[in-house]
Design brief:
The chain has a four-stranded mixed β-sheet with strand order 1-2-3-4. Strands 6-5-8-7 form a four-stranded antiparallel β-sheet, with helices on one face. The protein has two domains: 105 residues, 2-Layer Sandwich (GMP Synthetase, Chain A, domain 3); 99 residues, Ribosomal protein S3 C-terminal domain (2-Layer Sandwich). The two termini are 37 Å apart. With 225 residues, it is α/β, with parallel strands linked by helices. Helix 4 runs antiparallel to helix 5. Helices cover 32% and strands 30% of the residues.
Length: 225
């Protein structure tokens, strides 16, 4: 059976929240484009900073950007110089897109540290993609990723997959390993999922990671209402 939906988006509103939180009835298209450009700017600027996700909150003339990263020091910089520079770049980018160069926009950047990178699908996938780009054998990468993730007691199952011209072979193929269980059809299951692309001289290799961290149940008070 084919997997036709992202496990994260499938659970939004159940045990997942939105990464963009704002209301703009007349400016939905513009806000979506701005959010995309902001995330692209941050991903390009801090490609090696271990960014797990970027959350954006909006209010009139105010934007709050929350960066979840495993290496906060690389973003903050010496004396907070990195954060201040990022604020200015975000403000300049947004005002340029709105064609309001002389307007004022309040930008706040918060940094949240991700303490257990081995249980985060995005960071695991990024690590695997970096190793593939360094020409490390893909079977070794898959086995090491499985062992590292399953060493955490909070993880009940993990699946890792790579697809493309693996190790430079002439024909593309898919290889994967799985340990534990991954109940993708159970909505209460806390499934962390990520897809990352590794870029090589012989082409791109896709990396996908699924991590199952148990079921999420509502509080008794909520169920009784």
């Amino acid at each position: 059976m084919g997997q036709k939906i992202n496990p994260v988006s499938f659970r939004i509103g159940i045990n997942r929240g939105w990464v963009s939180r704002w209301f703009g009835k007349k400016n939905i298209g513009r806000f979506l484009e701005e959010d995309h450009e902001l995330r692209s700017l941050i991903a390009k600027r801090f490609a090696k900073a271990g960014i797990e996700r970027v959350e954006i909150e909006r209010s009139p003339n105010h934007i709050r950007v929350i960066l979840f990263t495993s290496r906060p020091g690389l973003i903050i910089g010496r004396g907070g110089e990195g954060v201040e520079a990022l604020k200015k770049d975000i403000e300049r980018k947004i005002l340029k897109m709105r064609d309001q160069k002389n307007a004022k926009l309040q930008v706040k950047v918060d940094i949240e540290e991700v303490r257990r990178a081995e249980t985060n699908a995005t960071l695991v996938a990024q690590s695997m993609a970096d190793q593939i780009e360094k020409r490390i054998r893909f079977r070794r990468i898959l086995k090491q990723a499985i062992e590292k993730v399953m060493s955490n007691k909070d993880v009940l199952g993990v699946k890792v997959m790579v697809k493309g011209r693996l190790d430079g072979s002439e024909m593309a193929r898919t290889e994967w390993l799985k340990r534990g269980k991954i109940p993708l059809h159970t909505l209460r299951a806390n499934i962390d999922y990520a897809a990352v692309t590794a870029f090589n001289t012989y082409g791109t290799v896709g990396v996908k990671v699924w991590i199952y961290k148990g079921d999420v149940f509502e509080d008794k008070d909520k169920r009784s209402v």
